[in-house]
């Protein structure tokens, strides 16, 4: 995909990876609609990035707000070339309850499905378009301490794979981003939580590898979109972990239990 001159929507753009993605796309010549449920945060993103970036308060999981983001892009810049489904939450620790599951699946999965449903028919008519799913290494491995996060991120990866297989021959590109620890407000919040189960989730990520900057994730993501690559691994060691899991699932689960025990006794 040619980034220069393209029209891009980025959700969850009020801070962290989303803000970095808006800046990186803009730096490569894209016009960006930055959306976030945090109106002040996303306005700050637009002011900080400057250029052809407009901010809009939007709930990334709400079908009407997704439609409004798409309409905003069309009005300001033209048809949407790329949609970056970046908004996400860690959710409740442990198993959670029914409301917890509804909320995390809405934000981490159904938001992707609703955006694709709104845009893919148009992209098929045009013969071009690109969908970016910001998932997590938890979608390839798992997440200690938080079932909802692990399951929703697995589902987000699965949905991205399905899109790429189903529509790749028709001009629709898909990129799936799967980082481990990224230095964002979300990670800082769960590391400081008073809930031991929440802190366990954070520790499992931080101790597994280097915590990278949002800008690192953004640079690799935009490069992957430009090159038409599917998977982005800001932590390259994740590839080896995935290979170990595939080679011997039982051994991998045993190793993850051992890792969890070590975190609980630290």
UniProtKB/TrEMBL annotation:
<keyword id="KW-0560">Oxidoreductase</keyword>
<dbReference type="InterPro" id="IPR002347">
    <property type="entry name" value="SDR_fam"/>
</dbReference>
<dbReference type="InterPro" id="IPR036291">
    <property type="entry name" value="NAD(P)-bd_dom_sf"/>
</dbReference>
<dbReference type="Pfam" id="PF00106">
    <property type="entry name" value="adh_short"/>
</dbReference>
<comment type="similarity">
    <text>Belongs to the short-chain dehydrogenases/reductases (SDR) family.</text>
</comment>
<dbReference type="GO" id="GO:0016491">
    <property type="term" value="F:oxidoreductase activity"/>
</dbReference>
<protein>
    <submittedName>
        <fullName>SDR family oxidoreductase</fullName>
        <ecNumber>1.-.-.-</ecNumber>
    </submittedName>
</protein>
<dbReference type="InterPro" id="IPR020904">
    <property type="entry name" value="Sc_DH/Rdtase_CS"/>
</dbReference>
